[in-house]
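Read as chain and fold; for instance:
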Amino acid sequence: MRSLQSSLIILTFIAGLASADIGGEEKPKLSINALSWLAGQRQGPHDDGLLEQTWLAPRSGTVTALVRSSEESATRFVEIIHVREINGSLELNLQIFNNSLEPDRMSATHSPIQKFELTEIGDRYVFFRGVSSGAHRSLSYQLSDENIFFIRIETNVGEKIEVELKSILVEEKILKDKSPREAERRTRQKFEQSATT
């Protein structure tokens, strides 16, 4: 009887290992191409000024963005965002620079480069969690069906910020479509002025 119990325990253990091995198959590595929807140039109001973002298309395992925050008379900051494939997932790093392109140091104890790990990705949605000292707690991007680009931030002190940006190209196309005759008239006027000088 004891040997039957021992055999059952051993078989159960082996079956458990086998099923754990099957269930523990490696997930496919996440490609940076999953973020191709980020590519584009957008802008929108933020903090009594203007926030502009230009995302480059995925290439060589990275996606990069340039961000500028400005008010009427000055640039507040410039930010570089760099997302790369690492260990089968995606990592986002960002650094903020002042108007003289010197790294912005929030404090002497925090790293100037904020590091984020991917926690969730979906169809035109990505969510990162801050992991470095001084980084925002979270940062996410989403592109709606209406082509509105949402940035959602939870700062390192818990403030929640949502920014809505619109595609610059879409705005330009709408303006052109609304007044094609006006644009044609201005072009003709500029041509005539240059011909007379």
